[in-house]
Structures are given as structure tokens and as C-alpha cells.
Specification:
The protein contains four helices and nine strands, in the order E-H-E-H-E-E-E-H-E-E-E-E-H. It is α/β, with parallel strands linked by helices. This is Hypoxanthine phosphoribosyltransferase.
Amino acid sequence: MLEKDIERILVDQDEIIEISKRLGKQITEDYQNKKPLIIGLLNGCLPFLAELIKHIDLYCEYELMSVQSYHGGTKSVGNVKITKDLDISVENRHVIIAEDIVDTGRTINVVKDLLLYRGAASVEVVTLLDKPAGRVEPFIPKYIGVTIPKLFVVGFGLDYEGFYRNTPYVGILKESVYNKD
């Protein structure tokens, strides 16, 4: 049913698993003896976080935080709002923020700065998708699954108006779905 709204699949389920394996191996190598805290940014990170942590062979914890900048539409509105904060301290911890997509750079910069302010020993970002053409603030994630062009994508955690998060792939949403003019 959801497939009818997808123009084409950009990253399929097998590619997502391979990306997660590669990123998990990289993180495992980089964080030996550091016991990282992986912070997933809700809601979009859940499928990626669940796949990624299966491939990290380290003692690590994960925690969830909810930060919003889109509020249901297709464009970031510019104000970043924390709607669910962390339940544990990040002080002296090596933190890895897990994101479904890094787009404008606004949200990830705010969260990274906040975690450093709270005393994190280090903060890096792992993202399934990187969309540098969408940047309005400079930001380069340390761990990038795949770089994509400036397209409106949904699936595997990414949504439009709360829907499409449950598809097992990342696809390009047909413009007719979100552009009703």
C-alpha cells in the first residue's frame, strides 16, 4: 500500500544492513576500551539504531532523546525543540549520536553542542543518510552510511506527516504526495 507513494527505492533493505555492518565495524575499531554511549534521536533513528547496534562489538549503552525541527512538514522550521531529554548523564562519556539523516545541520549542531556543554568527553555522529546539499549550517558527520542528493526521502524511520517510517527501505516520496498545489 505505501509503495504506491514511492517514486523509487534509493537504499534497499540489503544495502541498509551492509551499511550498518560497515559502520558498526568502524565504531568497534574506533571505540576499543571506551564503552561509548550511543544516543538515538527519536523517532526516526529507531530502525537504524536497532540495526546498527547489532554490529557493534563493544560494551556500550544506548539512550534515546527526542528533538524536533520539522514538526510534520517537509522543511526544517529552524527552531530545535527537545521533547524528551536523556535519563542519564553524559559527563565524561564518549557519545555517538545515531541519526537517520543529517540534512540542514541545525538539529545535530544543537544536540552536539548541548552534550559537550553537559560534559561529554567526545561527541561524534553516525548517520544512515547524509544530505549535504540540504545544509544551512556546516556539519560533517564522522560516520556516514551513504550520501544522498537533495531529495525528499521516507522510510526506514524517515517520515512525512508521521507516516512511512515502517517501510524496510529508503525511498523517494512522489512529489504529488506532499506538494498539493
